[in-house]
């Protein structure tokens, strides 16, 4: 599945890192970044494994500013 993350709107709550640490880490500025991504416009985009769908969905659903999307 495809992950899209609009990093510049992150408020640094760290929920995504807690829910899906194989995909998200907090950077030195306290914002979440995808570990492996390509920048496409405003989005960081990456590939998620099907086995991780539930964790990625928790991150997407829990993000308080709704900037994580999985397709
Ligand atoms: S859950 Fe959303 S606001 Fe919180 S750190 Fe992750 S991307 Fe940023």
How does this structure look, described?
With 71 residues, the protein is an alpha+beta fold. It has helices at residues 15-19, 53-62; strands at 2-5, 24-26, 32-34, 38-40, 43-47, 68-70. The chain has a four-stranded antiparallel beta sheet, with helices on one face. The termini are close together. The longest helix has 10 residues, at 53-62. The protein is built from two helices and six strands, in the order E-H-E-E-E-E-H-E. The protein has a single domain (2-70), classed as 2-Layer Sandwich (Alpha-Beta Plaits). The structure holds iron/sulfur cluster.
How is the biggest beta sheet arranged? 4 strands, antiparallel
- Please give the order of strands in the largest beta sheet: 4-5-1-6
Approximate helicity band: 10-25%
Q: CATH topology, what is it called?
A: Alpha-Beta Plaits
Number of helices: 2
| Shape, principal axes of CA atoms | globular
Architecture, CATH level 2? 2-Layer Sandwich
Q: Which stretches of 5+ consecutive residues score pLDDT under 50?
A: none
Topology:
Elements: E1 2-5, H1 15-19, E2 24-26, E3 32-34, E4 38-40, E5 43-47, H2 53-62, E6 68-70
Antiparallel strand pairs: 1-5, 1-6, 2-3, 4-5
Short description:
This protein has helices at residues 15-19, 53-62, and strands at 2-5, 24-26, 32-34, 38-40, 43-47, 68-70. The chain has 71 residues and is of the alpha+beta class.
């Amino acid at each position: 599945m495809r992950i899209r993350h609009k990093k510049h709107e992150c408020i640094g709550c760290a929920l995504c890192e807690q829910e899906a640490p194989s995909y998200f880490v907090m950077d030195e500025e306290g914002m979440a970044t995808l570990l492996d991504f390509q920048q496409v416009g405003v989005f960081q985009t990456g590939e998620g494994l099907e086995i991780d769908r539930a964790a990625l969905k928790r991150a997407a659903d829990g993000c308080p500013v709704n900037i994580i999307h999985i397709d």
